[in-house]
Design goal:
This protein is mostly helical. It is built from nine helices and no strands. Helix 2 runs parallel beside helix 4 (80-101), helix 3 packs across helix 7 (182-219) and helix 6 (139-178) packs antiparallel against helix 7. The chain is globular, with a radius of gyration of 26 Å.
């Protein structure tokens, strides 16, 4: 068999050799590993943990939706982290463009207010706190800005669907009145279907980003001696509401243990 392939290659120098599946998988795995390292270095959580292995098989339920989003993008294939990292780089570029646009730095509050209004329109909790230098922002602040980046994209997708729907209705009326234009109607239906699919898939990403925001909020919740075991239920509720933006000021409630018993000063609870 090998000799026959070699003789065929000699007769046809342009003959494409058979694909090397193992080499392709190894290259894809390397790309995923590099993308994971780049995301983690920039404090962006990869969309699936490293212990799932590669290629991805028997995917747990909690990762299926976000993986299906990245795979829905053209050219993603199996390298979903490569797609995620590309999207994150686009966001970082967006951050720099926005800050060049809102000069001097004090003008950035206009963009910040727009982002806050956008979160309210989408019924999302949490506040938006931005600095002119993104490098000085916390992971949470960058993540909320990343959410805003995709909320802007989502609103554009929704607007495109609404405009296409109006166009389709007009095309259908025109076709019914003149007994022609059926092809135009079918083309518009196809565009509308594509647009609706983009919105549906993008909602998966928005859901995932909000779940991570909530997880980050819990992770960064202030604690006593690095534990929340000593907190009263009331204090935990106050802080959860504060992080989600439902309260403007921190609580004045005290932990179950007194400052003397817990070994910390009152200044620790802010």
């Amino acid at each position: 068999m090998v000799d026959s392939v070699r003789r065929a290659a000699e007769r046809s120098p342009n003959l494409t050799p058979p694909p090397d599946h193992e080499a392709d998988v190894a290259h894809a795995r390397y790309q995923e590993d590099q993308a994971r390292k780049a995301l983690e270095k920039d404090r962006c959580p990869p969309c699936y943990p490293a212990d799932l292995g590669f290629p991805l098989e028997n995917i747990p339920k909690e990762y299926k939706e976000i993986l299906s989003y990245w795979k829905s993008l053209p050219g993603t294939g199996h390298v979903v982290l490569v797609a995620q990292h590309s999207d994150w780089r686009s966001f970082r570029d967006f951050q720099r463009r926005i800050r060049r646009h809102y000069l001097p730095p004090k003008c950035l509050h206009r963009f910040q207010n727009e982002a806050r209004d956008r979160r309210r329109r989408h019924a999302l909790e949490g506040d938006v706190c931005l600095q002119h230098d993104p490098a000085k922002q916390t992971q949470m602040e960058n993540w909320v800005e990343f959410q805003n980046f995709h909320l802007t994209i989502h609103e554009r997708f929704e607007k495109e669907v609404m405009e296409e729907n109006k166009y389709l209705i007009a095309a259908q009326k025109k076709s019914a009145a003149k007994a022609q234009g059926a092809e135009e109607v079918e083309i518009s239906k196809a565009r509308l279907k594509t647009g609706e699919s983009k919105v549906i898939h993008h909602e998966l990403l928005l859901h995932w980003t909000e779940q991570h925001r909530k997880a980050m909020a819990i992770e960064h919740m202030p604690s006593i001696n690095n534990t929340q075991d000593e907190w009263s239920d009331e204090l935990k509720t106050y802080w959860a509401d504060f992080i989600d933006g439902r309260r403007k000021r921190p609580p004045k409630a005290r932990p179950l243990l007194s400052p003397v018993q817990s070994g910390v000063s009152k200044n620790k609870i802010r």
